[in-house]
Amino acid sequence: MLFGHGGNIYDAAREIGCAPGAILDFSSNVSPLPLKKPFLDFLVDRLPTIQVLPEPDSQTLRETLSARTGLGPQNFLVGNGTTEWIFNIPAVLPGIGRVVIPIPTYSDYEDAARLAGKKPFFLGPFIDLGEGKSGNGRLLKELEQHVRPGDLIFLCNPNNPTGAFIEPGPLHELICNFEESLWVVDESYAPFIGPDEESSLLSKGIVKNCLILRSFSKIYGIPGLRIGAISGPESLLKLLSERLKPWSVGTLAQLAGSYLLRKGEWEAETRLYLKEEKKFLRGKIEAIPGLRPLGSRTHFFLVQVTKEGLSGKVLAKRLLKRKILIRDCSNFRGLEGADIIRISPRLREENEILIDALKEELSQ
């Protein structure tokens, strides 16, 4: 397992000797908005349900996913976060040769491949520091050139950490053109782009060689509940379900998922808020000499540290002394030595604290 994911406020707090709650966490891509009172009241009212076992197969939640997407309940499995599927897919599904991973991206794809005894094949890196932007202009072209039958392709869309995004139409066409390969599209951040019909392959229906991962943690701000879903053809889900443990998702997580899936207006509110805060935060950072924000379609974005004598790692350590946590990206494959950090907006007053801290650190 690669240690150094974003959002680890516990290790950060231990390092500097403070309570985890004292850390201002800009390293996590989870929604920073406080949980809404109606949702909290909903959970409190249902606390007595923890006295009985949860549904063993999350049937009600799968039906809610079906109602939202128009796909069948049989086209979904629910598990203990998307991580469960990332690690099970290369280990369980037959006929997999290489595991193709465009980089830089989420490290668990590589970890899952190696744990399953599969050889990772890396494409990229797909980031253009020379033009001061991140993206995937070459990605579709290189996938067309390099993917071959039997490959398993992990594709994070929108991508973490770059925030690059491939529209559902061109991506759907590419996947259908390579039907002898298996595509796993991680849409954990898709709700930050737009509603499902604009951001998700779920709007294109079931494709026989494609599995889609959906996270509840990010857009709804509930990473501690550990819940995620996978969608795809019944034939592939049946193979994965054989490894699915009964009661792998707790009752409160199941109930929360069904409740929040019906709150499209809350998702829209989060998107709008983060769009404005990203604009504010990015603009302020752009004005600080020695920092260069890169392009991103998501709320989170990369920043290159260009000040001579200052690395991204050192800047992250300095900020941590101020109880501010940002994501040092030096352990992302493809970003080694690039002095890149990743920042995700928080509430306005917190963003202002980060800006002041960056100004002070870059002026030294």
Any key phrases for this structure?
2 domains, Aspartate Aminotransferase, domain 2, 15% strand, alpha/beta, 15 strands, Aspartate Aminotransferase, domain 1, seven-stranded mixed sheet, 14 helices, 364 residues, globular
Describe this structure in words.
There is one protein chain. This protein has 364 residues and is of the alpha/beta class. The chain folds into 2 domains: 9-30 and 265-362, Aspartate Aminotransferase, domain 1 (Alpha-Beta Complex); 37-262, 3-Layer(aba) Sandwich (Aspartate Aminotransferase, domain 2). Helices cover 38% and strands 15% of the residues. It is built from 14 helices and 15 strands. The strands form 4 sheets. Strands 2-10-9-8-7-3-4 form a 7-stranded mixed β-sheet, with helices on both faces. Strands 11-12-15-14 form a 4-stranded antiparallel β-sheet, with helices on one face. Helix 3 packs parallel to helix 11 (251-261) and helix 4 runs parallel beside helix 5 (108-115). The radius of gyration is 20 Å and the shape is globular. The model is unreliable at 131-135 (pLDDT under 50).
